[in-house]
Amino acid sequence: MEFFIDTGDINEIKTAYAWGFVDGVTTNPTLVAKSGKKNEDLIKEIAEIVDGPISAEVIALDAPGMIKEGTELSKIHKNIVIKLPMTKDGMIACKHFSKSGIKTNITLIFSANQALLAAKNGATYVSPFVGRLDDVGQTGMDLIGEIRQIFNNYGFETKILAASLRHSQHVKECAMMGADTATLPFKVIEGLFAHPLTKNGLDQFLADHAKSNK
Ligand code: G3P
Q1: Domain count within the chain
Q2: CATH value at residue 144
Q3: Among 106, 130, 158, 214, which one is least packed by beta carbons within 10 Å?
Q4: Atom number of ligand 1 nearest to Cα 135
Q5: pLDDT of the residue at 82
Q6: Is any atom of ligand 1 closer than 6 Å to the C-beta of 164?
Q7: How confident is the model at residue 214 (pLDDT cuts 50, 70, 90)?
Q8: Is 83 a catalytic residue?
Q9: Atom 4 (ligand 1) nearest CA
Q10: What are the pLDDT digits (tens) for 27-51?
Q11: How far is the CA of 164 from the centre of ligand 1 (A)?
Q12: Mean pLDDT (whole number) for 176-186
Protein backbone atom coordinates (compact mmCIF):
# COMPACT_ATOMS: atom_id res chain seq x y z
CA MET A 1 0.00 0.00 0.00
CA GLU A 2 1.34 3.44 -0.92
CA PHE A 3 1.10 6.35 1.52
CA PHE A 4 1.09 9.89 0.19
CA ILE A 5 1.08 13.07 2.23
CA ASP A 6 -1.71 15.47 1.28
CA THR A 7 -0.21 18.91 1.80
CA GLY A 8 1.52 21.90 0.27
CA ASP A 9 3.55 22.55 3.42
CA ILE A 10 7.24 21.90 2.75
CA ASN A 11 8.11 21.41 6.43
CA GLU A 12 5.38 18.80 6.82
CA ILE A 13 6.64 17.02 3.69
CA LYS A 14 10.27 17.01 4.91
CA THR A 15 9.27 15.75 8.37
CA ALA A 16 6.95 13.00 7.17
CA TYR A 17 9.24 11.88 4.32
CA ALA A 18 12.07 11.36 6.83
CA TRP A 19 9.88 8.79 8.64
CA GLY A 20 10.46 6.51 5.68
CA PHE A 21 7.02 5.17 4.81
CA VAL A 22 5.74 8.14 2.82
CA ASP A 23 5.92 7.34 -0.90
CA GLY A 24 4.62 10.50 -2.53
CA VAL A 25 2.67 13.76 -2.27
CA THR A 26 -0.72 15.03 -3.38
CA THR A 27 -1.62 18.70 -3.67
CA ASN A 28 -4.76 20.53 -4.71
CA PRO A 29 -5.56 24.21 -5.37
CA THR A 30 -6.68 24.72 -1.76
CA LEU A 31 -3.41 23.31 -0.39
CA VAL A 32 -1.34 25.32 -2.89
CA ALA A 33 -3.19 28.51 -1.90
CA LYS A 34 -2.44 27.78 1.78
CA SER A 35 1.28 27.47 0.94
CA GLY A 36 1.28 31.01 -0.49
CA LYS A 37 3.41 29.79 -3.42
CA LYS A 38 2.78 29.48 -7.15
CA ASN A 39 1.73 25.97 -8.20
CA GLU A 40 4.81 25.35 -10.41
CA ASP A 41 7.22 26.68 -7.77
CA LEU A 42 5.73 24.52 -5.04
CA ILE A 43 5.75 21.40 -7.22
CA LYS A 44 9.42 22.01 -8.15
CA GLU A 45 10.32 22.37 -4.49
CA ILE A 46 8.49 19.15 -3.58
CA ALA A 47 10.17 17.25 -6.43
CA GLU A 48 13.57 18.16 -4.98
CA ILE A 49 12.63 16.52 -1.67
CA VAL A 50 10.49 13.50 -2.56
CA ASP A 51 11.44 10.73 -4.96
CA GLY A 52 7.94 9.40 -5.67
CA PRO A 53 4.63 10.33 -7.32
CA ILE A 54 3.68 14.01 -6.88
CA SER A 55 0.16 14.98 -7.92
CA ALA A 56 -0.12 18.49 -9.39
CA GLU A 57 -3.63 19.71 -10.20
CA VAL A 58 -4.65 21.73 -13.23
CA ILE A 59 -6.88 24.80 -12.85
CA ALA A 60 -8.29 24.95 -16.42
CA LEU A 61 -11.78 23.55 -16.88
CA ASP A 62 -11.68 22.96 -20.65
CA ALA A 63 -9.85 20.00 -22.18
CA PRO A 64 -7.39 22.02 -24.33
CA GLY A 65 -6.54 24.17 -21.31
CA MET A 66 -6.08 21.11 -19.08
CA ILE A 67 -3.84 19.47 -21.68
CA LYS A 68 -1.71 22.62 -22.03
CA GLU A 69 -1.39 23.15 -18.29
CA GLY A 70 -0.84 19.45 -17.54
CA THR A 71 1.82 19.15 -20.24
CA GLU A 72 3.73 22.08 -18.70
CA LEU A 73 3.43 20.59 -15.20
CA SER A 74 4.62 17.19 -16.46
CA LYS A 75 7.84 18.81 -17.71
CA ILE A 76 8.82 19.83 -14.17
CA HIS A 77 9.91 16.31 -13.18
CA LYS A 78 9.44 12.67 -14.21
CA ASN A 79 7.50 11.99 -10.98
CA ILE A 80 4.70 14.44 -11.70
CA VAL A 81 1.19 13.00 -11.87
CA ILE A 82 -1.37 15.28 -13.52
CA LYS A 83 -4.44 15.73 -11.35
CA LEU A 84 -7.62 16.31 -13.34
CA PRO A 85 -11.20 16.78 -12.17
CA MET A 86 -13.84 14.13 -12.89
CA THR A 87 -15.63 16.02 -15.67
CA LYS A 88 -16.26 15.41 -19.38
CA ASP A 89 -13.33 17.64 -20.27
CA GLY A 90 -11.26 15.98 -17.57
CA MET A 91 -11.91 12.63 -19.25
CA ILE A 92 -10.77 13.99 -22.64
CA ALA A 93 -7.55 15.23 -21.04
CA CYS A 94 -7.14 11.92 -19.17
CA LYS A 95 -7.36 9.93 -22.41
CA HIS A 96 -4.84 12.30 -24.02
CA PHE A 97 -2.33 11.89 -21.19
CA SER A 98 -2.83 8.09 -21.06
CA LYS A 99 -1.94 7.87 -24.75
CA SER A 100 1.12 10.09 -24.17
CA GLY A 101 2.35 7.96 -21.25
CA ILE A 102 1.81 10.76 -18.71
CA LYS A 103 0.42 9.66 -15.35
CA THR A 104 -2.92 11.02 -14.15
CA ASN A 105 -4.92 11.22 -10.95
CA ILE A 106 -8.64 11.80 -11.43
CA THR A 107 -9.95 13.73 -8.48
CA LEU A 108 -13.34 14.48 -6.93
CA ILE A 109 -14.58 10.92 -7.38
CA PHE A 110 -17.84 10.37 -5.50
CA SER A 111 -19.34 7.35 -7.31
CA ALA A 112 -18.17 3.97 -8.57
CA ASN A 113 -19.35 4.85 -12.09
CA GLN A 114 -17.07 7.89 -12.15
CA ALA A 115 -14.15 5.66 -11.15
CA LEU A 116 -15.11 3.19 -13.89
CA LEU A 117 -15.03 5.92 -16.56
CA ALA A 118 -11.63 7.13 -15.39
CA ALA A 119 -10.24 3.58 -15.39
CA LYS A 120 -11.54 3.03 -18.92
CA ASN A 121 -9.67 6.16 -20.00
CA GLY A 122 -6.45 4.78 -18.56
CA ALA A 123 -6.16 6.89 -15.41
CA THR A 124 -3.19 5.98 -13.24
CA TYR A 125 -5.08 6.86 -10.03
CA VAL A 126 -8.66 7.64 -9.06
CA SER A 127 -9.22 9.68 -5.92
CA PRO A 128 -12.48 8.85 -4.11
CA PHE A 129 -13.14 11.38 -1.31
CA VAL A 130 -14.15 9.31 1.70
CA GLY A 131 -14.53 12.04 4.35
CA ARG A 132 -16.63 14.32 2.18
CA LEU A 133 -19.12 11.48 1.57
CA ASP A 134 -19.25 10.89 5.34
CA ASP A 135 -19.92 14.63 5.72
CA VAL A 136 -23.15 14.36 3.69
CA GLY A 137 -24.41 11.29 5.53
CA GLN A 138 -23.14 8.55 3.23
CA THR A 139 -20.58 5.91 4.20
CA GLY A 140 -17.53 6.98 2.24
CA MET A 141 -15.74 3.72 2.84
CA ASP A 142 -18.44 1.80 0.93
CA LEU A 143 -17.23 3.57 -2.22
CA ILE A 144 -13.72 2.20 -1.76
CA GLY A 145 -15.17 -1.33 -1.58
CA GLU A 146 -17.35 -0.85 -4.66
CA ILE A 147 -14.47 0.50 -6.76
CA ARG A 148 -12.18 -2.32 -5.54
CA GLN A 149 -14.73 -4.91 -6.68
CA ILE A 150 -15.25 -3.29 -10.10
CA PHE A 151 -11.53 -2.89 -10.77
CA ASN A 152 -10.92 -6.51 -9.71
CA ASN A 153 -13.79 -7.75 -11.92
CA TYR A 154 -12.20 -6.32 -15.04
CA GLY A 155 -8.53 -6.30 -14.14
CA PHE A 156 -8.18 -2.51 -14.32
CA GLU A 157 -4.70 -1.42 -13.28
CA THR A 158 -5.89 2.04 -12.20
CA LYS A 159 -4.96 2.51 -8.56
CA ILE A 160 -7.50 3.47 -5.91
CA LEU A 161 -6.08 6.51 -4.12
CA ALA A 162 -8.29 6.98 -1.06
CA ALA A 163 -8.50 10.71 -0.30
CA SER A 164 -10.23 12.99 2.18
CA LEU A 165 -9.20 10.64 4.98
CA ARG A 166 -9.62 12.35 8.31
CA HIS A 167 -8.45 9.90 11.02
CA SER A 168 -6.62 6.63 11.77
CA GLN A 169 -9.77 4.51 11.52
CA HIS A 170 -10.24 5.67 7.91
CA VAL A 171 -6.68 4.56 7.14
CA LYS A 172 -7.15 1.09 8.65
CA GLU A 173 -10.48 0.59 6.88
CA CYS A 174 -8.99 1.63 3.53
CA ALA A 175 -6.19 -0.87 3.99
CA MET A 176 -8.70 -3.61 4.83
CA MET A 177 -10.79 -2.68 1.77
CA GLY A 178 -7.73 -3.00 -0.46
CA ALA A 179 -7.18 0.62 -1.49
CA ASP A 180 -3.86 0.77 -3.33
CA THR A 181 -2.92 4.17 -1.93
CA ALA A 182 -4.01 6.51 0.84
CA THR A 183 -3.26 10.21 0.86
CA LEU A 184 -3.14 11.63 4.34
CA PRO A 185 -2.87 15.05 5.96
CA PHE A 186 0.17 15.40 8.26
CA LYS A 187 -1.98 15.19 11.41
CA VAL A 188 -3.51 11.89 10.29
CA ILE A 189 -0.05 10.44 9.60
CA GLU A 190 1.08 11.50 13.07
CA GLY A 191 -2.01 9.87 14.55
CA LEU A 192 -0.99 6.50 13.09
CA PHE A 193 1.93 6.29 15.52
CA ALA A 194 -0.19 6.80 18.60
CA HIS A 195 -1.29 4.11 21.04
CA PRO A 196 -1.54 4.78 24.79
CA LEU A 197 -0.07 1.35 25.62
CA THR A 198 3.04 2.15 23.56
CA LYS A 199 3.56 5.34 25.56
CA ASN A 200 2.80 3.65 28.91
CA GLY A 201 5.09 0.75 28.06
CA LEU A 202 7.96 3.03 27.11
CA ASP A 203 7.50 5.16 30.26
CA GLN A 204 7.64 1.98 32.35
CA PHE A 205 10.77 0.66 30.58
CA LEU A 206 12.55 3.96 31.12
CA ALA A 207 11.47 4.15 34.78
CA ASP A 208 12.75 0.60 35.40
CA HIS A 209 16.00 1.35 33.59
CA ALA A 210 16.51 4.48 35.72
CA LYS A 211 15.90 2.46 38.95
CA SER A 212 18.39 -0.28 38.01
CA ASN A 213 21.04 2.27 37.08
CA LYS A 214 20.98 4.26 40.36
O1 G3P B 1 -6.95 15.07 -1.44
C2 G3P B 1 -8.25 15.51 -1.18
C3 G3P B 1 -8.34 16.06 0.18
O4 G3P B 1 -7.41 17.10 0.32
C5 G3P B 1 -9.68 16.54 0.57
O6 G3P B 1 -9.76 16.44 1.93
O7 G3P B 1 -10.60 16.83 4.20
O8 G3P B 1 -10.80 18.62 2.43
O9 G3P B 1 -12.21 16.58 2.31
P10 G3P B 1 -10.91 17.17 2.74
Answers
A1: 1
A2: 3.20.20.70
A3: 214
A4: 9
A5: 98
A6: yes
A7: confident
A8: yes
A9: 164
A10: 999 999 999 999 999 999 999 999 9
A11: 4
A12: 98
**What is the crossing angle of helices 63-74 and 39-49, to 10°?**
40
- Decide if pLDDT at 26 tops 90: yes
Range of the domain at 116: 2-212
How far, in Å, is the centroid of ligand 1 from the Cα of 151?
A: 23
Residue 188 C-alpha to ligand 1 middle, in angstroms? 12
Active-site residue among 83, 95, 120, 199? Answer: 83
27 C-beta closer than 6 A to ligand 1: no
Specify the residue with its C-alpha closest to ligand 1, atom 7: 164
Say if ligand 1 is within 6 A of residue 132 CB.
Answer: yes
Q: How far does the centroid of ligand 1 lie from the alpha carbon of residue 68, in Å?
A: 25
Q: What is the 3-state secondary structure (H, E, C) of the chain?
A: CEEEEECCCHHHHHHHHHCCCCCEEECCHHHHHHHCCCHHHHHHHHHHHCCCCEEEECCCCCHHHHHHHHHHHHCCCCCEEEEEECCHHHHHHHHHHHHHCCCEEEEEECCHHHHHHHHHCCCCEEEEEHHHHHHCCCCHHHHHHHHHHHHHHHCCCCEEEEECCCCHHHHHHHHHHCCCEEEECHHHHHHHHCCHHHHHHHHHHHHHHHHHCC
Ligand 1 neighbour 57 (Cβ under 6 A): no
